[in-house]
Write a structure and sequence with these properties.
Blueprint: H1 3-14, H2 38-52, H3 58-63, H4 67-78
Helix pairs in contact: 1-4
Length: 80
Amino acid sequence: MDRAEVDTRIRSLIEPFNKKGVEITEATTFASDLEFDSLTVMDFVAEIEDEFDIIISMNQQAEIENFGQLVDAVTKLQDQ
């Protein structure tokens, strides 16, 4: 699956979590823009892991601050 396909699938997964209807761009941050709390992050990560059949480690999660970084990380994890 290429980066564009990953991007599209993550956008559909993020919709239920995007309570304020924030426009999702590469630079959209989870903490500031989307105001995700720790529980929301855990739920969202679980959805992504299930959808793509990957595991995102806690260290990787700590490094992912915006949507673009998440798409890159998921794309890279799928290639492993």
